[in-house]
Amino acid sequence: MLLESTNISGTPLLDVHDLAVNFGGIRALKNVHLEVKGGEFVALIGANGAGKTTTLKAILNAVTKASGEIRYRGQPTTGIPTHHLVRMGIGVVPEGRRVFAASSVVENLELGALERTPKGEASAIMASVFDLFPVLKERRGQMAGSLSGGEQQMLAMGRALMGRPELLLLDEPSMGLAPKFVDRIFEILSDLRKTKTTILLIEQNALMSLEIADKAFVIEQGRTVLSGRASDLIDDPKVAGAYLGRPEE
After folding, report:
1. Of 31, 32, 41, 34, nearest to 8 (Cα)?
2. Does the residue 198 lie in any domain?
3. Percent of the chain with pLDDT over 90
4. Calpha distance 218→239 (Å, rounded)
């Protein structure tokens, strides 16, 4: 399949170590660590305001880190502009979708292919995207701004996949969506997991994230406080009490 990961190994594709970020005099991140190996589906979960999106922005060099190290493919990313990281293989589905409202579905997808995908391969990858998101094929000529919120989220995901990412970052893809679209988004994420697409999912919906992830990291008040296999964390009393709506035993 065209969307399968091409970097499956024991070496971390992304390694975040002791990350700290300051906003003014406030330390937003204090001690964040996580790693994503090729072919893994990793979830970063935490409450609203815990520092999840700030972590993603730091990975993309959209905010300046105060200390710590971020490595992609084993190389430090300090000073590399965000668009260069995209060229290097990091695909991004941003919070709030950020589709180009005045452009068609196809035009949005074509923009996603510009940085990394040879022109001769773009049509085949778009066909794979349409297989994954049939509704986008049905609305291929429609302006993105006229799509529903769930359809725009699918378009944002498809646009990122058009760049053949080695690592796909998703920031709160279920936020603000109707329940039926939340279910559909997680079904699609589960399908992507089966293709061994390497994914870091940043998400407030802890239960649905842990149900499909290989491993997870829990962030609280700017710190990584727990990590492990997702199947273990879903049964952890602290996680159950804080994020899954179940009382601690």
Report:
1. 41
2. yes
3. 63
4. 8
The CB density around residue 14, as the number of other CB atoms within 10 Å, is 23
Give the Cα separation of 141 and 68 in Å (integer).
Answer: 45
65-72, strands of its sheet edge to edge:
75-76, 65-72, 12-23, 26-37, 223-229, 215-220, 41-45, 199-203, 167-171, 90-93
What token pair was written down for 228? 């492990």
Would the pTM of this model clear 0.70, i.e. be above it?
yes
**What pLDDT score was predicted for residue 106?**
94
The answer to the question of residue 77 being in a domain is yes
At residue 169, the pLDDT reads 96
Full residue range of the structural domain in which residue 31 is found: 12-100+165-243
Identify the sign of the CA torsion 75, 37, 233, 243. Answer: positive
Residue 65: give its domain's CATH number: 3.40.50.300
Q: Is the pLDDT of residue 76 over 90?
A: yes
Q: Per the structure, how many domains does the chain have?
A: 1
Distance CA 3, CA 194 (A): 11
User: Beta strand pairing status for 41-45 and 199-203?
Assistant: parallel
Q: Is residue 224 part of a domain?
A: yes
Whether 11 contacts 37, CB under 8 Å:
yes
Task: Scan for tokens 């922005």, then name that residue.
Answer: 57
Beta-bridge partner residues of 155: none
Q: What is the DSSP string of 38-87?
A: TT-EEEEE--TTSSHHHHHHHHTTSS-EEEEEEEETTEE-TT--HHHHHH
